[in-house]
């Protein structure tokens, strides 16, 4: 206890220096915590979004682009595929759910997704929501009806009964350059509850709306099943079992106009790339934290030199080596611990702020989870380094002869 | 040339006086620098009586501080034996020596050597904390009582840098006596003080040592200080190494 009392007294005697040293540790740890927290949130978001689906059919091209486009509404699609593919898998006995997607238009940079009510079933099941929740109003039944994701409703202020006109493509152009489909405004008929998933930042309409806009549905009175020549962007499939999914995968792989993709596998690949980047940033951040702990050691080395005579005095009046060792080790431990705790708090604040900024600027939704083992580990590692940073100068200081230390001028 | 082989026995506790608190026998401290070997202290026999105040006098470098450090167990003799309060120090390990110092030794330094991070009260409490011999409330009460005794009761919360030299040495005296040491060692306690102030500090040191039944050994080259003490030992009388070097 005497070591703790002395260490705290020494810490209080140099508040500015110790505070700045702790701040350096805090900065390093905050970057470690921010990167790991954001990376964890991104992994969780990706696995929640991509993990629920079994097979994606999209136009040939980059699989990552197809997954980002269809499941995350975050990229331009790879192209279009014939509607017959959807009809074929929809009619397949081994398919329990087939959800078509048709992209092409947007409103204030929010993607308008043509699909069927099966999409609602899909997200309800993935989120384990009941029929009563998730949708206020109703799902679009007729062309130019729209249900808005929660983030879209929040950003645009639109509500049920309001109308809006879409722009062609994914980017909102200035008024004089835009290709707004002004003649065919959309009417909002439903508002989706917040899902903390890409669904929040999209606008959903019927599959045939886009065909009507882009002239693939010339006769409004014709039969809805008369789809010859029409195209969609992708189809998400859930099979009865793995055998059916594997069969469909093999079947679609033979076609020239479509590619089957396992979204979970692609998401894992993307996360692998993210992991590499995150590992690099985390390594650099740990290096910064390590340098900060070296700062503690330098500070305590300086203290050991400055306290040369004090250490000798302590020994002369009965302090054991362990007591002197304990004083400096506790100082290192305290500075690093304080820095680490501040760093964890600041790092999580940074992660929340970055997630908020991403949501505001790009609509990417990242849910920052509760602090856990990673944060506790960061604090523990920093404290261990701090302990070591105090231990080494103390050991060196104790090597000096007490009588010589008493005679020293410092 | 003096006879360096002659054995010198100096026993102040002879003739029915108090029992010795320090006993040295055949004691030498030597250092080796390259091929050369230097002996800084060479004492045949020395016994210092308990309960008195004893001055060690001599010029700088004559071994006064070395002798005090030996008594405190801070230095180990190259050869010979040293017993303090009945304990043979040469046989003690590092941990036992630490405990011995915490329990039996009080040390007053020329440069005061207060811990700047602690208040006056904290400095006085420190030896009691280190010896772990007293509950916190008693420890604090004794520290305050000792500060009152040295006239610094109102300065208990002050840090050393807020005190004058004289006040710092008073805190040093209170700290040295706080753990009820059997042996109080003072190394040039007045050298950093003005002459008049130095004398009053030595008188306080002697009084505090007597009140606490501690034996006081003061290393000093100040004749005025020596006149205040019960006995004076000149280093040239006990240290044969001085004869060799001269």
UniProtKB/TrEMBL annotation, chain A:
Localization, per the record, is: Cell membrane
Q: Where is the MacB-like periplasmic core domain?
A: 20-239
Transmembrane ranges, per UniProt, are 284-305, 325-356, 376-398
This protein's UniProt keywords: Cell membrane, Membrane, Transmembrane, Transmembrane helix
Tell me if Transport is a UniProt keyword of this record.
no
Q: Looking at the Swiss-Prot or TrEMBL record, what is one Pfam family this protein matches?
A: MacB_PCD
Query: What top-level branch of life does the organism fall under?
Result: Bacteria
What topology does it adopt in the membrane? Multi-pass membrane protein
Q: Report whether ATP-binding shows up as a keyword of the record.
A: no
Q: Where is the ABC3 transporter permease C-terminal domain?
A: 283-400
Any single Gene Ontology cellular-component annotation: plasma membrane
* Protein name as it appears in the record: ABC3 transporter permease protein domain-containing protein
The protein's organism comes out as Candidatus Filomicrobium marinum
UniProtKB/TrEMBL annotation, chain B:
Q: Which PROSITE patterns match?
A: ABC_TRANSPORTER_1, ABC_TRANSPORTER_2
Q: Which CDD domains match?
A: ABC_MJ0796_LolCDE_FtsE
Note whether Nucleotide-binding occurs among the keywords.
yes
Q: Where is the ABC transporter domain?
A: 22-244
ATP-binding recorded as keyword: yes
Q: Name one GO molecular function term.
A: ATP binding
For this UniProt record, the keywords arranged alphabetically read as follows:
ATP-binding, Nucleotide-binding, Transport
Q: Show the PANTHER family listed in the entry.
A: IMPORT ATP-BINDING PROTEIN, TRANSPORTER, PUTATIVE-RELATED
**Similarity section:** Belongs to the ABC transporter superfamily.
Q: What is this protein called?
A: ABC transport system ATP-binding protein
Q: What organism, scientifically named, is this protein from?
A: Filomicrobium insigne
